[in-house]
Amino acid sequence: MIHQDLLGAIGDTPVVRLNKVVGDSPHEFFVKLECFNPGHSVKDRAALRIVEGAEERGDLRRGSTIIEATSGNTGLGLAMIGAIRGYPVTLVMPDKVSEEKRAILRAFGAKVVVCPTSVAPEDARSYYMVAKKLVEMTPNAFYANQYFNEDNLLAHYEMTAPEIWQQMAGQLDCVVAGVGTGGTLSGLGRWFREHHPDVRMVGVDPVGSILHDLFHHDKVLNPPHTYKIEGVGEDMLPGNVHFDVMDAFERVSDLEAFEMCRRLVKQEGICVGPSAAMAVVGAVKHAASLATPSRLLIILPDHGRAYLSKAFNEDWLRENGFLRDPLAGRTIGDVIRSKPRSPVVTAHVEDSVQEVVQLMKRHGISQAPVSSDGQIVGVLDESDLLRPLVDGRMQPSEPVIHLVKGSVIWAAPGDSIGTLLSQLDEGFFALVRDADETLHILTKIDVLDYVGTTLATLRET
């Protein structure tokens, strides 16, 4: 099929079965990959319906500027449509939105205004309020207003829901989706209520949002707070959130979502963003409450490329506490216990170079602590002995007292492996005296052997 422009390619996104990340479950899980839309997200559908609805009503006309408050994906849909149909676009977004999203919006020619995330919706600095202010200040402006514009909901009522039913050949028990503006799940819910009311609609909310509380308790029990998942959850109730067409709500933490994000791409080959991964976690949680084997379809709203600097960046994940440390809690004592027990071989400052060479050769070691009057004062390794001999600066019969280097690194059995590695960055070894006064010597090779063995065991389990 040949489309007249890119907008004709919106919709008809594929459905794929999940096989590994859902574990050994009696239920069947399917995902609808909305990243196959031309703007790489489910929001292409809503953006197109919003623009066409506004054009039909005369709210959007030649010379109009489209303005919207967005976490990125609706903005991308509007920017793409604006580029094709000739509308300037200004987008206002919270500062937690990834830089990749901001960059692609600017590439489409949109103006991007960034506002603080951690302010109340009614605060003049919030992205909702800044967008409204820009509408007031901009002549001939059209405010897309996805949170309250019913065209957002109608996009999924008219297009997405019947598409899902056809693709699933009528074999469907639950539809699961993250909820932000509410348009996706409310539109789907309205259509299924009218046509197939036995299909359950399940919303998924990030911890920190108020929607889960409002659905279950009709009031906010846990005050809203910032979270890292983008594009879902709210600190206010959007007009497009219709709880009456939803059957259940699950709550998912940042950690659960970011871990699933990485599992999906590694185990299923599906690269999506944290909000999509959140929906998968929510679906698995909801399935655990179902008494009979069921078929669940999960809406995955966008692609993972927009989150390379976050969800797929190990430094960012580690800084934000989302990357589990497989060595957390492991200590120097664990490394010692993993080694064959053998006495520490020590040289003495009065030993000759030749004697120390023979000592190392006899015990098969390349380095040794050096003592003076019963106290360890430094370190010697093979290169410390070799260079002076080759350069002629020392004779084999001379004492090694002139070659001893470095301060002694002492560590305790209870210290973390991370602490030990920081010490070993100096290039020497560490000495450890345990509770029974036994002396142990640890090198980088010892730590490497322990870490490698430990990680391999964790992978097998």
How does this model look, in words?
38% of the residues lie in helices and 17% in strands. α1 (43-57) packs across α5, α5 packs across α6 and α8 crosses α9 (274-287). The mean pLDDT is 90. It has helices at residues 43-57, 73-85, 99-107, 127-137, 150-167, 183-195, 211-217, 254-268, 274-287, 314-319, 332-338, 353-363, 382-391, 417-424, 444-460; strands at residues 15-17, 28-33, 65-69, 89-94, 111-115, 141-143, 174-178, 200-206, 248-252, 295-300, 347-348, 367-372, 375-381, 409-411, 430-433, 439-442. With 461 residues, it is of the alpha/beta class. It has three domains: 6-38 and 152-319, 3-Layer(aba) Sandwich (Rossmann fold), CATH 3.40.50.1100; 43-143, 3-Layer(aba) Sandwich (Rossmann fold); 332-460, Roll (CBS-domain). β3 (65-69), α2 (73-85) and β4 (89-94) form a beta-alpha-beta unit. Strands 1-2-10-7-8-9 form a six-stranded mixed beta sheet, sandwiched between helices. Strands 5-4-3-6 form a four-stranded parallel beta sheet, with helices on both faces. Strands 11-12-13 form a three-stranded mixed beta sheet. It contains 15 helices and 16 strands.
